[in-house]
Amino acid sequence: MGEYLLEMNHITKVFPGVKALDDVTLKVRPGTVHALMGENGAGKSTLMKCLFGIYHEDGGEIILDGKREVINSSKQALDLGVSMIHQELHPIRYRPVMENIWLGRFPMKGIAVDKKAMIQKTKDLFREVGLDVDPEVLAGELSASTLQLVEIARSVSYNSKIIIMDEPTSSLTDNETEHLFKIINKLRSEGRSIIYISHKMEEILRIADEVTIMRDGQYVGTWPASELTTDLIINRMVGRDMTNRFPPKTYTPSDEVVLKVENLCSPLAKSFQQVSFELHRGEILGIGGLVGAQRTELVEALFGLREIQSGSVTKDGERFAVKSVRDAKKHGFALLTEERRATGVFGILSVLDNTVIASQKNYATKGVLHQKQRAEAAQESCRKLNVKTPSLEALMQNLSGGNQQKVLIARWLLTQPDILILDEPTRGIDVGAKYEIYTIMHDLIAQGKSIIMISSEMPELLGMADRVMVMCEGRVSGFLDRDRFDQVEVMRLATQFAS
Q: How do residues 447-460 score in pLDDT, each as one tens digit?
């Protein structure tokens, strides 16, 4: 083996209307963690899909173990020792975990599947990566974070020399991330190489040996991680200095109360209980807390997605019962969900369809859709939010994460809401796209709208909110006004009732 286990030289990839990769180089040494960074749309995932055989490059070469390879399928990539943990998980939910892991390579006894051997192989694999999961449990019964760790175990089971990890910690808790890092260190010590894609700077600087940065489908450079800082990475990713991560505040929230929530309780004992708060016109109310604080459950109840057992919701002085999404929309609520891929994006539909789907009735007469009106509304909405797409007919799944998120915001703005609920609005989005989302939020506030924002990123929570409500184990543990914002105080309140 030479100096590099993998060389991708001068890779080019063209899609209709866009040059996704333009003369990109990536060289990975054996037994290292090599971070691949760049804004959404920089071409990171496209480059990895070329390596994994999902796409075929239009130019350049791939050299594995010193030998030039033409990789035409994922099966061929796996046979060559390259595995990939995709950002979007697609388990077969109604089959056992072990079948998800060994699909296509079940252990056999004659012509029958050897179930006993499969259980044992799965237990051995889980022991190797420190995962405590019953091999026979249905995949659909596991949390997103556990499924992520199962997917990592599946990748390890191929004995791959190169493992591509695309945003592997996006749905993991801090403890689970620590567990993943232990697995990565073990794999690295065995001489395997990890290509690690993430927007989380602290993770990159901690776990990576080298960092390659891409911008607009082009190669920017490769550096030892020890020579980089967060500011340097951001500067090289976006091609400009991002000293101000948040737009300046040019507004002051009014004293007018648009939403009053009193003693809201879930019928589930371990969910939100006795939650009370007010939201003012032209205010961003941040909701902080740790995983399990029931923040998402609370806002989903306000949007009619979960049952409310008791308590009251008053909007503009009118008390109303939130029994359905239709009720919530009628009273001017909109919800941008936490998991955009699972509960927001219709990947196989066009950008146009994704934009107008929540306000479809506005463009129909007696059940007949007015295509011109739909197109005009989508075009104007996407223009206002600076959505980058080759056309409105482009498939939603082909847009970068940041642009998908902007389409979802455009979707809800077409319903003309007064109150926008944004659950982790910038999860999995790069710094440049984050700034654009923040600017959109400020523009909406300037128009007199109000925003409830859940964020697990402390800098975002304190950088964007006018007030912060902190939750712990389903209860409100405190409020902080902007002049009292303090990370330590937020963490203290977030653990106040923790047992």
A: 999 999 999 878 88
SS3 state of residue 84 = strand
Can you read off the two tokens belonging to residue 437? 């989302």
In this prediction, residue 240 carries a pLDDT of: 55
Q: What is the pLDDT of residue 60?
A: 94
Number of domains comprising the chain: 2
Q: What is the pLDDT of residue 162?
A: 94
Residues 14-46: tens digit of each pLDDT? 876 667 899 999 999 999 999 999 876 688 888
Distance CA 464, CA 468 (A): 10
Residue 175: give its domain's CATH number.
3.40.50.300
Residues 6+ apart with CB under 8 A from 137: 96, 97
Residue-level pLDDT at 499: 44
Please list, in sequence order, all residues whose beta carbon lies within 8 angstroms of the beta carbon of residue 43, skipping any fewer than 6 positions away: 13, 20, 21, 24, 214, 216, 217, 218
- Residue in this structure with the two tokens 């997605």, named with its chain if needed: 305
Q: And the tokens for 51?
A: 């390596």
CA pseudo-torsion sign 389, 395, 396, 397:
negative
What is the full DSSP assignment across 189-246? HTT-EEEEE-S-HHHHHHH-SEEEEEETTEEEEEEEGGG--HHHHHHHHHSS-----S
Which residues constitute the domain of residue 222? Answer: 6-238
Give the span between the Cα atoms of 223 and 202, in whole angstroms: 16
Closest CA to 271 of 423, 456, 473, 452: 473
Q: Output the six-digit token pair for 443.
A: 């523009």
Considering the domain boundaries, does residue 247 fall inside one? Answer: no
Per-residue CA distances from 64 to 68, 73, 192, 254, 349 (Å): 6, 15, 13, 61, 37
Candidates 467, 410, 491; CA nearest to 259 is: 467
pLDDT for 243 equals 57
pTM (predicted TM-score) = 0.61
On whether the CB atoms of residues 392 and 379 are closer than 8 A, the answer is yes
Whether 1 maps to a domain, the answer reads no
